[in-house]
Amino acid sequence: MENLSEKLKNEFKKDIEPIAGQDNLMIIKLNKKSLIKKLSWEIKRYFDLLYCLTVVDYAPVFELNYVFSNYRNNDVLVIKVNIDQKDFNIDSISDIFDSANWEEREAYDLFGIKFDGHPDLRRILLPEDWPGHPMKKSFKVDDEIRNWTGLDMKF
Amino acid sequence: MEDSNDFSYPGMYEIIFMKSQKFINAVLNWGRSNSLWPLTFGTSCCAIEMMTVGATKVDSDRLGVLFVGDSPRQSDLIMVSGTITKKMARRLLTVYEQMPDPKYVIAVGACNVSGGLYHDSYNTIEGIDRIMPVDVFIPGCPPRPEQFLDAVKVLQKLIRENKSKAQTHGKSI
Amino acid sequence: MEHKERIRLNIGPVHPAMHGVLKLILDVEEDTIVKAQTELGFLHRSSEKIAESRFFSNYYPIMDKLDYVSALNMEILYASTVEKAANIEIPARAIYMRTIMAEIQRIMSHLIFIGSFGEDIGNITGFIWALRERELLMNVVEKISGGRLAPMYMCNGGMFYDFPEGIDNEILNVLSTIENKVSHEYSAMFTKNQIFISRTKGIGVLTKDMIKKYGITGPIARASGIQRDLRKVSPYLAYDKVEFDVPVADAGDTYSRFIVRTKEILESIKIIRQCLKDIPPGPYKTVVPWVMRIPKKDTFVKQESPRGEMGIFLVTDGSDKPYRLKLRSPTFFALRALEELLVNIRVADAFAIVASMDPVMGEVDR
What we know:
The complex is a heterotrimer of chains A (about 160), B (about 170) and C (about 375).
Chain A: H1 2-12, E1 16-19, E2 25-30, H2 36-44, E3 49-58, E4 61-69, E5 76-84, E6 89-91, H3 100-111, E7 114-116, H4 143-147
Parallel strand pairs in A: 2-5, 6-7
Antiparallel strand pairs in A: 1-2, 3-4, 4-5
Chain B: H1 12-34, E1 38-42, H2 45-54, E2 77-81, H3 86-98, E3 104-108, H4 110-114, E4 136-138, H5 145-160, H6 165-169
Helix pairs in contact in B: 1-5, 2-5
Chain C: E1 6-11, E2 23-29, E3 32-39, H1 47-51, H2 60-66, H3 71-86, H4 92-120, H5 124-145, E4 154-155, E5 158-159, H6 167-189, H7 194-200, H8 208-214, H9 219-223, H10 230-233, H11 254-278, E6 297-305, E7 308-316, E8 324-328, H12 330-334, H13 338-341, H14 347-357, H15 361-365
Antiparallel strand pairs in C: 1-2, 2-3, 4-5, 6-7, 7-8
Helix pairs in contact in C: 2-3, 3-4, 4-5, 4-11, 4-14, 5-6, 6-11, 11-14
């Protein structure tokens, strides 16, 4: 873990800043979203899989939390990337970490984030013609959506 | 000249037909109520309790509820157990339409009664009576296996008294 | 070469041999699958969105229904997350009680797996037997918590009630029954059954590379020779104070996935026996207010659920409700392997493979 932290600091310098984590959890903030692919290649040497991808809606900024883990030990690395609502896309890392494939599809489904270079960016949980992206804070569950039975959807 | 031995009078055959039809209906309803073959439409938690209903301890076979075919074409009762989402709703209706008449519906669990725990979810249907007729509702989240048997008993009574939705609104003879 | 006709088979979401509401779209040539796709989302109940409108103490019922076959494990995971975020220490007795409940639930979950796996490959007797044994444990859980499938036993800071008097002996009796049946009786029905062996051995082999590629964890990974169990790697609850083995198989086929889960039942029985011996007296909960505020922070907790590594990413913002709660479900990753795993096998074997993944769609779709 420490090796990786040092190495990333040398490599990326100002673009990353470590945030205090818990015992086995390291949190690193990435300031430039365009560097996520390069960073993933570095992480790939230490971590086997993308454990989960959490999107948090601090509108107008959305924070992506990439959680990495490996099969050897208990280390967990969290990479935080902010993306803006006006520029709502980020490079897909599914060609580096294959386990990111469905997690990115889920983030696209529920939040509408476009992942550039994703091989198969379709909705995964909701039907293709579902209106809107429901996990955004701006999506309010009102009577209209609750009374809708969904029978008019094609998929 | 008319035969004097003919007891015919206007409307006699209709009366005989009506009387016998009532009798035939009673026999049919007795038969139907005692051999309810369910289609197990299990989507989530209630489906696990429904498995228990078919297994040894509760044993729904005693009431003629045999978990056999699992095909909509051979079932006359559909137990909708588990949350129905908006994506699932049309699939549920398709399966329901494939079943032969007369068909009966038991809505299992709080989700299918009124939305239950997921009443403020964006992707569930608050009660399947919004999309299809329901004969018996079982409350509970999830209901105990004994409640399934109770619901079957209630449904059998409804069928014998000609009060199920299929008999009062449907096309059944 | 003769041209074979290609047929598209839609299996599910309503299918007697399909677990829950998973849908498989199979392209079939004669009896061989040439392409497989999975479709999820038929049980997407928006558990994550609901969390944002519930108090921390009021979310337990939803966790129960998330993975409804192992409800107590889900409750313990959520309780641990909230307690870690709010810095609540739980008493020693509560830790042991939680360990016992988690392992009881693990046995019940694996029994359901044995039953439904038996049913899917045509072994109905196995299904009836497994549910019969599960009912014994159900009675125990009912006596302890008052609920069957969704017990609602955990709360922030511990449990709602203490164990009732004399439950130890009852648990031990039930455990010895189950141990006897699983280690002796079931082998006649499954592992010594020639039909079962020929339907499962060598079918659906997941290699180590595939496991790492797709990010699969839990018993499926252990069946492929990856020695990783969070109970050993990062012991939580009382797992560092008890002795147990992590069953591992090397073949990675459907048969070894079955064997690993069967052995895990026996290991869980060992854990419960040790915990019942060591359980200290004392309070069973730390009293915390029902409505509490947690300062702004991110918390990530992962635990070993019967299906693999389940995790919660909790983002709090100082209010009395979660700002964002993300559930990391293990089967969501495992099901992605089906698209590669189902290719070039027979249609009949597809059901055995899907059943060996032990998917619970409530947890996959969330």
